[in-house]
Design a protein that fits this description.
By secondary structure, the protein is mostly helical. It is 76% helix and 0% strand. Helix 3 packs across helix 13, helix 4 crosses helix 11 and helix 5 packs across helix 11.
């Protein structure tokens, strides 16, 4: 139990530090003491004591805090879905991007962006819904292409995922070439940078991410059993096809929620579950929740680095995660050749 509680508590502690870094770093630095004072005043509905505190409150509550919460939810969604995919397919290289879910969600979101829907409350529903439907369609297509009779070889699944992802990326590029007013917004989004500010994207992402992540947590036991193989799972009373379908739906919904509002941010679902599997073991009842917290920490810190690396300009956070994730992916690939997962 200590292998789970101690890392989890440590993750929460680091998350608190990361949150204060995120809300404090920017063109206007907000010291932790001032940030805490603003948050306490807001909770107590107390008026700011000075003009500087009022300025800090405006920046923090309208820009920094919603962005930080959005990054937390996105990191948790990507890490949770990546953990579920790795457990479901029994492969450390499986993540939302390798099997096409993220590329499909990206295509759906780009379709919504390039159709010229206004930036209203309605658009915050159309983008994630379109992203989810396209992601689900992409994953279904990957499954059908990879299936051999009634079996689903992991190698076939990854190869089919790469092929379908490339096709979805090509369609996305075609839409971007023919886009006009939304081109810059879509390009920034594709690099993993949210172009939406304020609380609307947070409120838009919250129900989709929450349903997806809670759904995955309820299927943690089934994920454990499925890792022993389909036959063993059936003997233990698990409806394999139904469980696998629901897990894919919840994981895809989490991925679509992340991609729709923050763009294409790679490798979070690959790095975080792999690290925590070495710390807590492969029990999904422990690995899933700690991966979600770890994903939130990782993406918040990556967002902080993206803001300060070339200040006063900002890099899309997807560039930072790719710089961290690409070497990590090669490391896992090399180890997987030497030892079965």
């Amino acid at each position: 139990m200590r292998k789970f509680t101690r890392p989890l508590l440590l993750c929460f502690a680091v998350l608190v530090i990361a949150v204060f870094l995120s809300i404090g770093v920017g063109s206007v630095a907000i010291p932790p003491k001032e940030a805490l004072e603003v948050l306490l005043n807001t909770m107590e509905d107390t008026a700011p004591a000075s003009d500087s505190t009022r300025t800090y409150q405006t920046i923090l509550l309208t820009l920094r805090l919603p962005r930080t919460i959005l990054m937390m939810m996105t990191g948790a969604a990507l890490a949770g879905s990546g953990c579920a995919y790795q457990g479901l397919f029994r492969n450390p290289l499986a993540d939302p991007y390798l099997i096409g879910a993220a590329s499909g969600a990206g295509l759906g979101a780009i379709i919504s962006l390039t159709l010229g829907w206004p930036a209203s409350a309605f658009s915050y529903l159309t983008v994630p819904l379109t992203a989810f439907l396209c992601a689900l369609l992409t994953v279904f297509l990957v499954f059908q292409l990879a299936k051999v009779r009634k079996s689903l070889p992991v190698t076939n699944l990854i190869l089919a995922g790469v092929a379908v992802s490339s096709f979805a990326t090509a369609l996305t590029s075609f839409l971007l070439i023919n886009a006009s007013g939304e081109l810059r917004r879509a390009l920034v989004w594709l690099l993993g940078g949210s172009t939406m500010a304020g609380w609307k994207p947070v409120l838009g992402q919250l129900p989709f991410a929450l349903i997806g992540l809670l759904g995955l947590l309820t299927f943690a036991y089934q994920l454990n059993v499925l890792q022993f193989g389909d036959e063993q799972a059936r003997q233990l009373g698990i409806n394999v096809n139904r469980a696998r379908t629901k897990i894919v739906i919840f994981a895809t919904l989490s991925t679509a929620a992340a991609v729709a509002f923050t763009g294409v941010i790679g490798f979070v679902g690959l790095i975080i579950p792999h690290i925590f599997r070495r710390i807590t073991g492969g029990d999904m009842r422990r690995l899933l929740p700690i991966s979600m917290v770890g994903g939130a920490v990782f993406l918040v810190l990556a967002d902080v680095i993206a803001r300060i690396l070339v200040a006063p300009q900002e890099l899309p956070v997807g560039i930072i995660t790719s710089l961290c994730g690409a070497p990590f992916f090669l490391f896992i690939l090399r180890r997987s050749k030497e030892k079965d997962w």
